[in-house]
Design goal:
Blueprint: H1 2-8, H2 13-19, H3 27-49, H4 63-76, E1 86-88, E2 94-97, E3 100-105, H5 112-131, H6 147-161, H7 165-179, H8 187-194, H9 211-227, H10 235-247, H11 273-292, H12 296-300, H13 306-315, H14 325-333, H15 340-353
Parallel strand pairs: 1-3
Antiparallel strand pairs: 2-3
Helix pairs in contact: 1-2, 3-9, 3-15, 4-5, 5-6, 6-11, 7-8, 9-10, 9-11, 11-15
């Protein structure tokens, strides 16, 4: 709070905190976006969870084989291994810029999707940094412009491209070649397994449909904390009450609740909403990219992502910090950022997946 008050210089404290991560965006603007999204997300989730769950993976997936395939995935999405590397960590992340951009992933022998989609997500971050014009190296323009724009790249790589029916049909064959049979009957069933909507406590493990609801919870709580309407000692109870109201079941332990993220313990207030802003931006970019690349799915079915990744590099990544976050997205997407394309994409995708 003291830091925010100093930065705000008499203005809104939380706006000052957000400015550190998404320049030119206010808490009020973010709240309006979230308020527009929440009813549709909640309604779509309710309809989806009324349907039977898709087939699930069976068996164990050795770590060594996962890491071999995950490095192939990184290269498939255009990650330049001559200026980067893929390692393991407890929490996946991307770091560096310019000529040294490194990513990490994690493995679980029961859930290889955790490894593969963590890698694709971090490759989105890494490819953004690698894709910035070399003319901007070692200058203030030579990094991603904001956390929201950065997240737009990781989410469009992971979700709109990586979880698409076209790309997962290729990944299904790669997984069968790597692991043999694993309980999924065909590529259509695999696509549904990749996109399963499921209950869970952990933000980083949330499915594409529910992820933004996890962010909205955090956004409202940290605004209350910064405004002095919520004290730290009351945070756990406030979190648990809000989680039960939003998701329909109670948090079982603090590590599955307010202690699961590092952001608050290290003072990164104003960071959380940029994750959902990134999803909104990704929706806008995907709509424009699909309009300009009508044959994209045919390429993705063969494991070729180059048209998509090159489109993103040319229209967004190469410009680095040249423009504001909002201008960066508007110029690439051809329109000002809006949640409408993302909501249309989610409605269409999950209506098809779950035969709604």
């Amino acid at each position: 709070r003291e830091e925010g008050q100093a930065l705000a210089a008499g203005g809104d404290v939380y706006d000052a905190m957000v400015e550190d991560y998404e320049q030119g965006t206010s808490a009020g603007e973010i709240a309006a976006i979230f308020d527009a999204m929440r009813p549709g997300l909640v309604d779509l989730r309710a309809r989806v969870l009324d349907k039977p769950a898709p087939q699930a993976l069976q068996g164990r997936f050795p770590e060594g084989a996962q890491m071999k395939l995950t490095r192939k995935l990184a290269k498939t999405f255009g990650y330049d291994m001559s200026h980067g590397r893929v390692d393991k960590a407890v929490h996946p992340f991307s770091s560096g810029s310019g000529l040294d951009v490194r990513i990490t992933t994690r493995t679980s022998e029961e859930d290889p999707f955790n490894c593969f989609y963590s890698t694709i997500h971090e490759v989105g971050h890494g490819a953004y940094e690698q894709g910035i014009s070399r003319d901007y190296l070692l200058t203030p323009l030579g990094r991603g412009v904001s956390m929201g724009v950065h997240e737009s790249q990781s989410r469009i790589y992971e979700n709109q491209i990586g979880r698409s029916a076209a790309f997962t049909s290729w990944l299904y064959g790669e997984m069968r070649d790597t692991f043999g049979e694993f309980g999924i009957s065909d590529a259509d069933a695999f696509y549904k397994a990749v996109n399963t909507v499921h209950k869970g406590y952990i933000r980083t493990e949330a499915d594409e449909l529910q992820y933004n609801l996890h962010i909205m919870l955090r956004f409202d709580l940290e605004r209350a904390l910064m405004a002095g309407d919520l004290e730290v000692g009351d945070l756990e109870a406030a979190w648990n009450d809000r989680f039960e109201a939003d998701f329909g079941y109670r948090v079982d332990k603090p590590s599955n609740g307010c202690l699961q993220d590092v952001h608050w313990s290290v003072g990164l207030f104003g960071y959380f909403p940029t994750y959902s802003l990134g999803n909104v931006y990704a929706g806008c970019l995907n709509e424009k990219m699909r309009a300009e690349l009508p044959g994209l799915d045919a390429e993705l079915e063969s494991g070729n992502t180059s048209s998509a990744t090159n489109w993103l590099r040319q229209n967004l990544q190469q410009h680095g910090g040249l423009r504001s976050p909002q201008e960066t997205i508007a110029l690439a997407a051809g329109a000002d950022p809006s949640p409408a394309p993302l909501m249309h994409y989610l409605e269409e995708k999950f209506t098809g997946l779950y035969d709604l």
